[in-house]
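Protocol step 4 of 5: obtain the predicted structure for the target chain.
Materials: sequence only (see below). No template structures provided, no constraints applied. The aim of this step is simply to have a reference model before the mutagenesis design in step 5. Sequence pasted as it appears in the construct record:
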Amino acid sequence: MVRNHPRIIGFLGQGLSHEYGAVQQYLTQASLCTLWGLEDWAATFRKEAQEELGHADLLSQHLLLRGIAPGAGALNPARPGRDLRQMLDYDVDMERAAVNLYAEAASVADRLRESEVAALFARLRQDEEEHLAHLQQTLARMGA
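Step 4 output (C-alpha cells):
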C-alpha cells in the first residue's frame, strides 16, 4: 500500500511544477532561436523540452498511483534571455534548482522509508546533474 505522506506529495507536486516550467522555458528558447535563425540550437532546446516532459510524465504517474490528480502549481515565468549565452546561464540556474529540489526530496523520502519514490527522485537528480554538467561544459567552450 502506498502512503500519502504530505511531504512526499508536496515534493511530487513541486517537481511537476518545475518540470513543466522547464518545458515552457526550453520551448520559449527554441522559438527564439528559430526566429534568430539558429536552427541547431532550436532543435537542442526542443530536445531538452522533451526530456523534461518525460520527467513530468514520471512524476504524474507517481501521483496517479497515489490516487492524486497531477496538477502543477504556479509555473515560474520563462526566462528567454537576450542572447544564447544568457539563455544558457538561465538554464544553468534552472537545472541547479532542480538538482537541489530532487536531492532534498530523495533525502526526505529515504528518511520516510519511501524507497520507490526516493529512487525516482534520485534518478531525476542524476538526470538534472547531467543536464547541468552539459550546460556548464557548453558555456566553458563558449569562453565563460
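Step 4 remarks: The chain has a mean pLDDT of 95. The chain is about 80% helix and 0% strand.
Proceed to step 5.
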